[in-house]
Every structure is written in structure tokens, then in C-alpha cells.
Amino acid sequence: MKRKINQYLLCIAGMTILITLLSLIAVFYGIFQRQVMGDLRTFCYLLKASVQREGEIPQGDSNLEEIRITWMDADGTVLADSNADVDEMDNHLDRTEIAQAIREGEGTAIRRSDTMSRDTFYYAILMEDGSVLRAARETDSIWSIFQTAFPAIFLVVAGMAAVSVFVSHAVTRHLVKPIEEMAKHLGSNTVEPVYKELAPFVNTIRQQHEDILRSAHIRQEFTANVSHELKTPLTVISGYSELIQSGIASGEDAVRFAGEIHKNASRLLTLINDIIRLSQLDSDDREMAKEAVDLYQTARGIVDLLKVNAEKQEIAMTLGGSPQTVAGDRRMLEELIYNLCDNAIRYNKRGGTVAVTVGHTAEGPFLSIKDTGIGIPPEHQQRVFERFYRVDKGRSKSTGGTGLGLAIVKHIVTWHGAELKLESEEGKGTEIVIRFPG
Ligand code: ADP
Predict the structure, then answer these.
(1) What is the mean pLDDT of the chain?
(2) Which of 389, 406, 410, 412 to mutate to test the pocket of ligand 1 (most atoms within 8 A of CB)?
(3) Tens digits of per-residue pLDDT, 335-362?
(4) Dihedral pair phi/psi, residue 328, rounded to 5°
(5) Whose CA is closest to 153, among 145, 407, 359?
(6) pLDDT tens across 263-305, in order?
(7) Taking CB atoms and a 6 Å cutoff, what residues make up the pocket around ligand 1?
(8) What is the pLDDT of residue 56?
(9) What is the secondary structure of 335-372 as a DSSP string?
(10) Ligand 1 centre and the CA of 366: distance in Å?
């Protein structure tokens, strides 16, 4: 950044120096031209009076060495010249200044020498008798002035460039230093952006910083939870298998221990499956193709699957509503309905009900799963969607819960662009409604 600002400042300084120099040369040369022409004009008027009086042009005057005087007849024939032999001179009628003087009374011209190093200024004036008097003066051309002045110009430019380099470094340092200071303490909320234009940038960085910290914390917590959740069944499996291996367990106990091992191994499998599923959903955040899925048919399949299990616990499952198509992923929607219905059964009471409804409102299709179970106390209602958060850990574990079901549900709902609403009353039941985009 420093380098860029430096480069820009130096570019600006260089261009400014160059443009200023060129403009100055052009302006001064313009003034110089006007001055020379003005002098020639005054001289011509004085000369006119003298020639009219004397009848000839002044010759051999050392004061007039720099000025060449030519006198021409009305037809362009040279009558007299202060510097050259008249007989060798051609007709001057085609000269711009002469033609202009005959036409308008006065004429001017500037001609450049072949080498471009000298300019000749001409001023011509019409006499009363129709003849034309011309004064000419040779000066250095703008190029030659530039060449002569080049060493001085070079020194000035070099000096100004050195000053520009110094100033641009100082300015850049002055501009960037507060930003560097701010960057060092960007994480702290007390540091204010030095330039108000940087406020949105600083806020975004801060927000990202906070998000990174938050997700690092969530990840850390998740890893700790996973380790803990895996450890418990593994300890049980290890303990029972050790007992069987050592031969301490009698035949009947061995069968019971093997049953415990099997139960905990299944628990582990369910847990690992849920963890894998969550991490898949995490990485599936990218846009996956959506298909048209009939919510009612999907719910029908899940209700049929869980009904027998529910009836064993004397819980009646019903499905109501009408076919509704949503844009989504069939497998995810099945998982969503399964997890919600499974919870509605596991956290229910004997003789309770689970009512699944698929319907449509003005905003779009919806899915409702309502149970008459134990309910969720208000202080837990927001947190049950966190990974491994459980209101009653014992009940969750004894019914085969992993604490990840609702986290998976939340993921799926977000992926579908849907909205989830939970209403629950302790001891009376819970209703979860998911509204899909119309
Ligand atoms: P779990 O595998 O423990 O059921 P979930 O993520 O599915 O994990 O649910 C988180 C917690 O929310 C559960 O442990 C339970 O305490 C509570 N919960 C979920 N669904 C219901 C429900 N229908 N009725 C009462 N409590 C529920």
C-alpha cells in the first residue's frame, strides 16, 4: 500500500513538474515573441518617417546590426537591403508579411531556420507611395532556448524530484502509520478507525474476527462433547468385555454383559452416524440442486415407519392435510420429519398422540408435528437446537438420543430456506411448525 501511494504521489509530482515547465516555457516564449514583434513595429514606424524624409534606408549603422532592413517596390522588387546585394535578391511579393502589408497596411511573419535553432521575426509596413518597408530580426528559437536552458532546467527538475520523493515518503508514512497502528489492535473494540472511510472495512474485519472466534469456540466445544459422548459407551463396552474375557462373568451374566456391549455399540454407531451426517450437512452448505418433493407423501412414509414403534408405547400417530410440493432434497426432508416424529414419540407419555399435518397458507406450504408429551421448559426452548444440548440427559440417552437430532433439523431447515417455530408447554406438549418458501 505504501509503495502504491508513493508511486502515485511521485507520478503526480513528476507530471506536475513537467506540465509546469512546459507551460512556463510556452508562456515565456509567447511573451518574448510579442516583445520582439512590438519592438520591430515601433522600429518600423520610426524607420518609415526616416525613409520618407531621407528617401533611402539607413546603411552601415553599427547600432542597427541586429536588424535587417529591406525596402521593396509595390511589385515586390527589392529597392534596398541593409545586409545584402539587391541584384541577387529575388522578388519578395510572395513573402507572407509583404503580401499582408500590401493588403492591410501592416504584416508580420516568423520563419524558422533550416536547423530549427533560429527564428526570424519580420515586420512589414506599407509606405504612402505603395512601397513596403520591412524590418527583420533573428533570435534563438524556442528549441534552442530550451537546449541552452537544459542544464538549468535539469538541475531544477532533479531538485524538485528529490524534494517530491522526500515529501511523498513523509506523506505516505503520515497517512499509513495510523492505519498500521489500528491494524495491530483491530481485535480490540476500543480502537476507533482513524479515517471515517475505513469504518465499514474495520467493522467487517471485526465481525469476521468475532465470527472466527465464535466458530473456533463452537468447534472446540463440539470436539470436547464428541469425545465425552464417545467415551461413555466405549468405557462400558471395554468394562463388560474385560469381565467376559477374564472369565469372571458366569453364563447368564455373560449374556447380559454381551447385551450391554451390543446396546452401547449401537449407541456409538448412532452417534457416529449423526456426527458424520452433521459434518456432511456442514460441508453441503454449497448450492445443491433442489427437486420437487411431495411433503405429504414423504411424511406418509415416515409415519408408516414409526407408527408400529409408537403403538408399542401406546402413542397414536396421525397424518392429516393435503399433498404439498416443496423445492428441496428428498433425503434431507425424510431425515427432518423422522427426527421430529422420533422426538415427538420419545418425549411423549403413554396414551399420548403425535399429529403430523401438511398444509398450505398464503405464505406457502407448512409441516406441523404436534405431540402431547412432556414439553420443553421455556428457558430451554432456544437451546435445544444446539449440538448435544439436552433438557433431560438421562431420558435422552435411555431412549437412544444423541443430542444431535434437532441440530440436524435446524441445518436442513436453513438449507431449504424455511422457517422453524417451536411452541411448547411443560407437561402439555410441543408443536414444531416449519414453513417453506412459497
Ligand atoms: P436427542 O437425541 O437428545 O433427542 P435432539 O437434538 O433431538 O436430541 O433434542 C434435543 C433435546 O430437546 C432433547 O434431548 C429433549 O430434551 C428436547 N426435545 C426435543 N424434542 C422434544 C419434544 N418433542 N418434546 C420434549 N422435548 C423435546
Answers:
(1) 89
(2) 406
(3) 999 999 999 999 999 999 999 999 999 9
(4) -175, -160
(5) 145
(6) 999 999 999 999 999 888 887 666 678 999 999 999 999 999 9
(7) 343-344, 347, 371, 373-376, 384, 389-392, 396, 401-407, 430
(8) 83
(9) HHHHHHHHHHHHT--TT-EEEEEEEEETTEEEEEEEE-
(10) 21
Which atom from ligand 1 is nearest to the alpha carbon of 375? 25
- In this predicted structure, what is the pLDDT of residue 6? 78
Query: Would you state the cell numbers that stand for residue 300, as one nine-digit string?
Result: 406418509
How far does the centroid of ligand 1 lie from the alpha carbon of residue 388, in Å? 10
**CA distances for 411 relative to 150, 281, 332, angstroms:** 75, 7, 10
For residue 374, count CB atoms less than 10 angstroms from its CB and return exposed for 0-12, middle for 13-18, buried for 19 or more.
buried
Cα separation, 315 vs 354, whole angstroms = 7
Distances in whole angstroms, Cα of residue 229 to Cα of each of 224, 232, 339, 355, 399: 9, 6, 19, 32, 15
For atom 2 of ligand 1, the residue with the nearest CA is 401
CA of 384 to the centre of ligand 1 (A): 7
Answer yes or no: are the C-beta atoms of 356 and 337 closer than 8 Å: yes
- Interacting residues of 320 by C-beta distance below 8 A, sequence separation 6+: 355, 356, 357, 358
Q: What is the pLDDT of residue 173?
A: 86
Mutation probe of ligand 1 site: the residue of 266, 384, 404, 430 with most atoms within 8 A of C-beta: 384
pLDDT digits (tens, 9 = 90+) for 386-405: 999 999 988 998 888 999 99
**C-alpha 420 – ligand 1 centre gap (Å):** 15
| Statement: residue 190 has pLDDT above 90 | no
Higher pLDDT, 26 or 194: 26
Measured distance CA(175)–CA(169) in Å, rounded: 10
